[in-house]
């Protein structure tokens, strides 16, 4: 069993199957260490359990990050994006009109602007 810490830099190059296999191995090792702890093993097991839990978290982080990046590529030019891939922002910002929607002018308003434009006044400067 491997008791060394898993480095995240090493994980990024691996494919999904290797990561899943490593995850299963780490979980099995964690389970065996926990049974040894209950049976009355040494206190050094506690640090190994801690390291294993962190290693499992690193593997899961890499798996989730690669999965999300693949989903971003898949949905790149689609009309709709899944909610968890959209930018978070704030609720008010998400409900705000888009730039395109804000610049739209109705037919009635176009006619009104054309027939009654803004008046231009020349103001003489007092000396």
Low-confidence runs: none
Main sheet attributes: strand count, strand direction, barrel closure: none
Topology as a string of helices (H) and strands (E)? HHHHHH
* Through-space gap between termini: 93 Å
Description:
With 127 residues, the protein is mostly helical. It is built from six helices and no strands. The protein has helices at 8-11, 16-38, 44-74, 91-95, 99-103, 107-115. Helix 2 runs antiparallel to helix 3 (44-74). It is elongated.
Features:
mainly alpha, 6 helices, 0% strand, 127 residues, 61% helix
List the helices and strands and how they pair.
Blueprint (H helix, E strand, L loop, with lengths): L7 H4 L4 H23 L5 H31 L16 H5 L3 H5 L3 H9 L12
Compose a concise summary of this entry.
The chain has 127 residues and is mainly alpha-helical.
């Amino acid at each position: 069993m491997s008791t060394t810490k898993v480095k995240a830099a090493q994980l990024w190059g691996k494919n999904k199957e290797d990561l899943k296999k490593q995850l299963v191995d780490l979980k099995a090792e964690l389970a065996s260490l926990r049974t040894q702890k209950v049976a009355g093993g040494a206190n050094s097991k506690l640090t190994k359990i801690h390291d294993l839990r962190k290693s499992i978290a690193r593997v899961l982080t890499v798996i989730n990050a690669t999965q999300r990046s693949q989903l971003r590529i898949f949905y790149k030019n689609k009309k709709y994006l899944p909610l968890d891939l959209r930018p978070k922002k704030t609720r008010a910002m998400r409900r705000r009109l888009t730039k395109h929607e804000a610049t739209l002018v109705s037919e009635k308003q176009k006619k009104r602007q054309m027939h009654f434009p803004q008046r231009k006044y020349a103001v003489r400067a007092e000396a």
